[in-house]
Design a protein that fits this description.
With about 160 residues, this protein is α+β, with helices and mostly antiparallel strands. The chain is built from 3 helices and 7 strands. The protein has a domain of about 110 residues: SH3 type barrels. It is about 20% helix and about 25% strand. The protein is globular and about 55 Å long.
Length: about 160
């Protein structure tokens, strides 16, 4: 009989995801400073519709949900910021500038050393769905006084032991 662990009030998943995205930022920052070492190259997958993503229209039309770019031989103007990066890449001989926040990244792979990270795009979770009002829902202020007057929200518990 297994019991489900209690829900955490500390967002561990978010904290870990953020820390792993910092790994991507640090790696890209080192590449910005020194270039790609050895045989290293990266496949970076990101949500094209995520907040802050800035890519040419023809790319967002072709890849409306997710896109993977390769940072290998032909890239330029790599600039790493605290919240994301910019890079120049060529698509069908058309130079393009991409700006990608780290929060939009869903995958990072360096096949040269068999290293991979998978992420959930931040902000992916939608707002809570609308629901029908419960019968006991009352606007704030209404009914609160009535409930306390008749005692309907008070429970009496007697912790004394009988001797």
């Amino acid at each position: 009989m297994s019991e489900a662990p209690p829900d955490s009030l500390i967002p561990y998943d978010e904290i870990v995801q953020e820390a792993l995205r910092a790994v991507v930022g640090r790696v890209l920052g080192e590449v910005e400073a020194t270039g790609l070492p050895g045989e290293h190259h990266f496949y970076i997958t990101f949500k094209t519709g995520a907040v802050g993503v800035d890519i040419p229209r023809h790319l967002s039309a072709k890849f409306p949900d997710e896109m993977t770019i390769v940072i290998q031989n032909r890239f330029w103007d790599l600039k790493v910021r605290e919240d994301g990066f910019e890079v120049g890449l060529s698509f069908n001989q058309t130079p393009s500038k991409l700006s990608i926040p780290f929060a939009a990244i869903t995958g990072f792979v360096d096949p040269a050393v068999n290293f991979a990270l998978q992420f959930q795009a931040q902000g992916e979770e939608g707002a809570p769905e609308d629901h029908e009002r419960a019968e006991n829902d009352q606007p704030a202020g209404e009914g609160a006084a009535a409930a306390t007057e008749d005692g309907s929200n008070v429970v009496s518990v007697d912790f004394s032991r009988k001797k």
